[in-house]
Design goal:
128 residues; mainly beta
Amino acid sequence: QVQLVESGGGLVQAGGSLRLSCAASGRTVSNYGMGWFRQAPGKEREFVAAITWNGGTTVVTDSVKGRFAISRDNAKNTVSLQMNSLKPEDTAVYYCAARRRIFGSGYGADTLSEYGYWGQGTQVTVSS
């Protein structure tokens, strides 16, 4: 099992920044590709960003490209999402997730079903 705990959410004005962190524990977390997803009220959960197990490849969805960046520190078992130039449409609950299978490439990293472990989520609210 992999346990994930997100932190860093909050209320911020449009144009501001937040840094989300995900603390991982359990199995050898450094062997897992990790991702961030978000879910706004009344909408389906959607992919935001992902990083491979070794940090060699990152993927971000088009709507946050140039504004969000994902990173990981395998020595500390943490994954972070730096969010800059936030917009009201970024308002959502943000979830950290670990992929079902260890290692692997960035292929399929944007697919929700590829992930088998989820955190409880952290709320991000961007005011206009």
